[in-house]
């Protein structure tokens, strides 16, 4: 689906429009009502990763090399190359570049081929003593378990099959969620006999799966999981990593050197780094081709990411600008429950 927006509006307003109107694409018009570009959630995330800000005009962030046609039949033919061109909506224009209509790719990405995997087997050591008798994913956050908000988000995205890896106090998770019918999904449990790391339990999944959405069981976020999975498919990625910008203030003056010559000094700079947000989408058919993963073995996500990169498989970042928290320690947990 699509919506119209003015090129002078802010990037922030574009995000609000995409989320509130639940559309895939904004068609960007100038003051003469001519189409100058399109913008999607993915376009905005790439723009922010390159250093753009939410207060910039959409004219700066929009895709000006957008696909357009002069008839519906032309647009229908163009959609045959959708996965190569990464397009969700095609504007159909009049000769003067004003908008006639829009043909949408819509909801053609079928999430029925996607399953979710929640990593919920950790010991929660940094949350002791809170996790002495309660597994970390079941800790209440503002009145409900962390795990419930994850399950609700998965269900609303259209994913209906969920696997949950469990080990520490796993029976309590099974007792709370059951078979998933109370939450509108189907749940199966992967019971780790020994710790398999943050990615090892992937090899316990059934072989007929095509795409896996996976999330750590201690993540609290408003991120739309459907946006993430769509982005993964449209870009033909082998793996997509939900990425968060982490800011760190250096408490000293940082010196720029060339040899032993000082060229500049920056007083207490704030540095920003992209970090992995504990949320991933994986082409499971590519994962199954890893020769030494025929049986479950210990594997952490960074090892899997490095493997795909070294095999020249496309691994892409999807920037999280929504609320996101790793509820991994007592200080963070108590702060979130107070706010």
What does this structure look like?
This protein is α/β, with parallel strands linked by helices and 339 residues long. It has two domains: 2-104, CBS-domain; 111-338, Spore Coat Polysaccharide Biosynthesis Protein SpsA, Chain A (Alpha-Beta Complex). It contains eleven helices and 18 strands. The chain has helices at residues 11-20, 41-49, 58-61, 72-78, 82-85, 146-157, 170-177, 225-234, 284-287, 301-310, 330-338, and strands at 2-6, 25-29, 35-40, 89-93, 99-104, 114-119, 140-141, 144-145, 161-166, 186-191, 211-216, 219-221, 239-249, 253-258, 261-267, 270-283, 315-319, 324-326. β1, α1 (11-20) and β2 form a beta-alpha-beta unit. It is globular. It starts with a strand and ends with a helix. 35% of the residues are buried. The mean pLDDT is 87.
Which range best describes the helical content: under 10%, 10-25%, 25-40%, 40-55%, 55-70% or over 70%? Answer: 25-40%
Give the number of helices: 11
Low-confidence stretches: none
Mean pLDDT: 87
Report the principal-axis shape: globular
Can you give keywords for this protein?
339 residues, alpha/beta, CBS-domain, 2 domains, seven-stranded mixed sheet, 31% strand
Brief overview:
By secondary structure, the chain is α/β, with parallel strands linked by helices. The chain has helices at residues 11-20, 41-49, 58-61, 72-78, 82-85, 146-157, 170-177, 225-234, 284-287, 301-310, 330-338, and strands spanning 2-6, 25-29, 35-40, 89-93, 99-104, 114-119, 140-141, 144-145, 161-166, 186-191, 211-216, 219-221, 239-249, 253-258, 261-267, 270-283, 315-319, 324-326.
């Amino acid at each position: 689906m699509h919506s119209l927006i003015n090129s002078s509006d802010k990037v922030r307003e574009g995000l609000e429009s995409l989320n509130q109107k639940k559309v895939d694409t904004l068609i960007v018009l100038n003051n003469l009502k001519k189409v100058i570009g399109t913008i999607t959630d993915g376009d905005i995330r790439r723009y922010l990763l390159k250093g753009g800000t939410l207060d910039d005009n959409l004219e700066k962030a929009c895709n000006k090399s957008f696909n357009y046609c002069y008839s519906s039949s032309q647009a229908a033919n163009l959609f045959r190359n959708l996965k190569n061109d990464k397009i969700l909506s095609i504007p159909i224009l009049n000769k003067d570049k004003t908008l006639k209509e829009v043909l949408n790719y819509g909801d053609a990405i079928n999430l029925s081929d996607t399953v979710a995997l929640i990593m919920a087997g950790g010991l929660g050591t940094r949350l002791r003593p809170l996790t002495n008798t309660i597994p970390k994913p079941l800790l209440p956050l503002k009145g409900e378990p962390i795990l419930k908000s994850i399950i609700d988000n998965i269900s609303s995205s259209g994913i209906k099959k969920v696997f949950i890896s469990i080990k520490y106090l796993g029976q309590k998770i099974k007792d709370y969620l059951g078979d998933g019918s109370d939450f509108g999904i189907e749940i199966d449990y992967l019971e780790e006999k020994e710790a398999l790391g943050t990615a090892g339990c992937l090899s316990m999944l059934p072989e007929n799966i095509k795409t896996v959405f996976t999330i750590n069981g201690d993540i609290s976020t408003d991120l739309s999981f459907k946006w993430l999975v769509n982005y993964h498919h449209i870009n033909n990625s082998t793996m997509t990593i939900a990425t968060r910008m982490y800011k760190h203030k250096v408490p000293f003056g940082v010196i720029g050197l060339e040899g032993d010559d000082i060229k500049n000094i920056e007083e207490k700079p704030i540095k920003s780094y992209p970090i992995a947000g504990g949320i991933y989408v994986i082409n499971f058919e590519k994962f199954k081709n890893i020769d030494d993963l025929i049986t479950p073995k210990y594997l952490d996500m960074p090892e899997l990411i490095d493997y795909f990169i070294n095999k020249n498989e496309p691994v892409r970042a999807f920037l999280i600008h929504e609320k996101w928290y790793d509820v991994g320690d007592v200080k963070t947990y108590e702060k979130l429950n107070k706010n």
